[in-house]
Amino acid sequence: MKIGYARCSTARQDTAVQIGLLGKIGVDRDRVYVDNGVSGRQSKRPGLENAINASREGDEFCVTKLDRLSRSAGDLHNTVERLSARGVALSIDGKVYDPSDPMGKMFIGMLGLMAEFESDLIRARTRDAIAAAAAAGKMKGRPHTLTPEERAYLLQVYETRQFKIETLCKNTGLKRSALYSNLALARAEQNASDSSHRH
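Given the sequence above, the corresponding structure tokens read:
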């Protein structure tokens, strides 16, 4: 059986689109659990709790996008563990991942880290923009270089081949040339770190 879960962060956002998409992959409307106006970082999500509790062994737990399920890798890990313990597979936009399978579990973990990274970037960019607007009276773009940690993470995300360059540019606020130079720098830093560990 397919159990669906839909969530929107603000009361104004509508879950109807998510419910429609879940219907297209075979989830009955009466098996879709909803959290309206609830952030993915909130621990109390009654709709999610009810959806997990309704799941039985052999079921598929369906979401349209991973960020509907969680915005934090730790929280996602906890949810996936609970589904796995029940013998329930996770379906993201119609693609089914079995958390009890090591490859499925690893892939869900990677997706969770990317969703959290994207969320953190959005929050950081918003904070930067507000601070810059207050200081200069106008919005300013993100600086061309990232921190070493951000660069290393960007390289990891880029090497999964899951995202188009345009998407990475949009998510990081970097122009294509700056994105490639940060990737090159991350590779150089990684190689330097690897060689120092070997010596």
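DSSP finds eight helices and five strands in the chain. Try to locate this feature in the token string yourself.
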